[in-house]
Amino acid sequence: MAAVASNRRRWRAVAIWGLALGIFCWVLPPFHVRTLDAPAASVARDSGPSQSPAHSARELWKQMLGTQERAVPLSTLLAAFERDPGAAEQEYGRRIGHGGPAFFFVTGSGRVLESTRKGVVLEIAEHSTRVLLVTGPVFGNSLRDSTSLVQIGDFDSFQFNALSAELNLLSEREVQPRIAALNRPGEVLNFTGGARFARRGGALEVVAIDVSPLK
Amino acid sequence: MRALRSVIGAVAGIILACGLVACSRGPAESTPAPAPGAQSRQIAVVVSTLNNPWFVVLANTARDEAQRRNYKVTIFDSQNDPAKEAAHFENIVASRYAAVLLNATDAEGSVANVMKARVANIPVFTMDREINSRAPVSQVLSDNYAGAVDVAIEFVEQLGERGRYVELLGIVTDNNTWNRSKGFHSVVDRYPGLEMIAQQSAEFDRSKALEVMESILQRSTSIDAVFCGNDAMALGAYQALLSAGLAGKVKVFGFDGSDDALASIAEGKLTATAMQYPKTMARMVAEFADRYLQGERNLPARLPIHVDLVTRGNIGEFGEHGRRGE
């Protein structure tokens, strides 16, 4: 009888220790099996958003239209530039990388002066600087890089570049017809868009996301 | 009673074991970013090729900047061969270098090498050539797409929106090749008067560009312009055009801003190029490596460096792989 009881106790102890070991191994596995590619799979692919660049551009476009109140007023920007271009860039401009032009998310109004091959030239009250509302094929990163709504780390380099091209196409398709319709000398236009100062000459080139006649 | 004691003992054992394991874990398991190599002051500069003067400038500048920051530096030449690059990484890992400044041979193929270093806790910083991975701590690269857009705008103006052209691509497994090509086409393809009659790779190599261009010219000499993914190919293409009696009649565009290309633009042989800044990139990655090894972790994962268009009109502003006076 004593031997049977002893045997039962031993089995119970083995079961308890076995259970304890099982729990321990489950909570803290003593080793992991993984291939050398595993870190690559977890960190390597800079896949970016799953949507197409066209879809991302459309989303960003909507956000830009919805945040026009964050755009710097043109008169504020031009006054700051007349005082100190460097400080104006620092305060209102944005650059994605190292060097190159600063981009501005700007809103304002101006009177149509003339049309050129590159766009519609606006005269700005109380400032000598002209604004060029870009028409025709739009190139560059004025729209993508002028706001902080998009970050370079959110995309791989191909997607990031494609995003810019898609945004430019949206401006061509959705805003340029309105610019064409309002392009009459003397007409005063309100506009919002991404901008940069031209490399040659001093005009502020604006790729517009919105244009309307002054009411 | 003995059973109760066993249960208490087992629970106590688990708690103790958990505590010991937790103490011994340290930060390693929770840190995706590797810790720097153990106290090493050696930095490896791994460059795709030293057969192109532009990359010599890149490698030497990275070396000089790292040495200025009191590191011992070894330059490894991969000779544009991913297998050689892999062998370099084996050596680097075995020798416990503190960091690698990498100019990769292949956007995809180099990922495995960088992962090998990462597993060995050796941080990698890429310069000029991007790899398709987040494994490098930082990737410092020219904004190739934007640079090619600027070259293409000049291309369109120079050709008056009409003409037949050839494109010479770089190494097809390199992201720079495609970012430049896509940037170029994002502009040029908008003008129906511009027709691409040939698009071939010359692998960023001057001799190969000479051969490829000669072969294209045997098929047709009715060409108005050539866009090349780097200056070495532009100079090779120009040589072929010269031999065919077409120098001066065909406009040649490059990308890099090498000294040879700038001299050729000044002489009217090439029309334009895009100035990259190899010294800026190399100094920046050496600085990033140093800051990382000193414990800083807030470094940009990818940093594009602006590229400038160089034509005969502004060539005086540029020289020695950068902007004069900088």
Count of helical stretches of chain A: 7
Gyration radius over CA of chain A? 30 Å
Number of strands of chain A: 6
> Strand count, sense and closure of the main sheet of chain B?
6 strands, parallel
Q: Roughly how much helix do the residues of chain B carry, as a percent range?
A: 40-55%
Second-tier CATH architecture of the largest domain in chain B: 3-Layer(aba) Sandwich
Q: Which features does this protein show?
A:
heterodimer, A: 215 residues, alpha/beta, OB fold (Dihydrolipoamide Acetyltransferase, E2P), 2 domains, 5-stranded mixed barrel, elongated, B: 326 residues, Rossmann fold, 6-stranded parallel sheet, 4-stranded parallel sheet, 10 helices, 44% helix
Structure description:
The complex is a heterodimer of chains A (215) and B (326). Mean pLDDT of chain A is 85; it is low at 32-47. In chain A, strands 2-3-4-6-5 form a five-stranded mixed beta barrel. With 215 residues, chain A is α/β, with parallel strands linked by helices. Chain A is elongated, with a radius of gyration of 30 Å. In chain A, 44% of the residues lie in helices and 20% in strands. Chain A folds into two domains: 2-33; 42-213, OB fold (Dihydrolipoamide Acetyltransferase, E2P). Chain A has seven helices and six strands, in the order αααβααβββααββ. The N and C termini of chain A lie far apart (105 Å). Chain B has helices spanning 2-25, 53-68, 82-94, 111-119, 144-159, 175-188, 206-219, 231-243, 259-266, 278-293, and strands at 42-47, 72-77, 99-102, 124-127, 138-142, 163-169, 194-201, 225-228, 251-253, 272-275, 302-305, 308-311. In chain B, the strands form three sheets. Chain B has a six-stranded parallel beta sheet, sandwiched between helices. With 326 residues, chain B is α/β, with parallel strands linked by helices. Chain B is 44% helix and 18% strand. Chain B contains ten helices and twelve strands. Chain B starts with a helix and ends in a 15-residue tail after the last strand. Chain B has two domains: 42-140 and 278-304, Response regulator (Rossmann fold); 144-275, Response regulator (Rossmann fold). In chain B, strand 6 (163-169), helix 6 (175-188) and strand 7 form a beta-alpha-beta unit. Residues 15-38 of chain B have low confidence and may be disordered. Classes of the chains: A alpha/beta (215), B alpha/beta (326). Chain A binds chain B through residues 9, 12-13, 16-17, 19-20, 23-24, 27-28, 36-37, 39-40, 42-46, 96-100, 137, 139-141, 152-153, 156-158, 161-162, 164-165, and chain B through 2-3, 6-7, 10-11, 13-14, 17-18, 21, 32, 111-112, 115-116, 118-119, 130, 132-135, 141, 143, 145-146, 149, 152-153, 175, 178-179, 182-183, 186-187, 190, 277, 280, 284, 300-306.
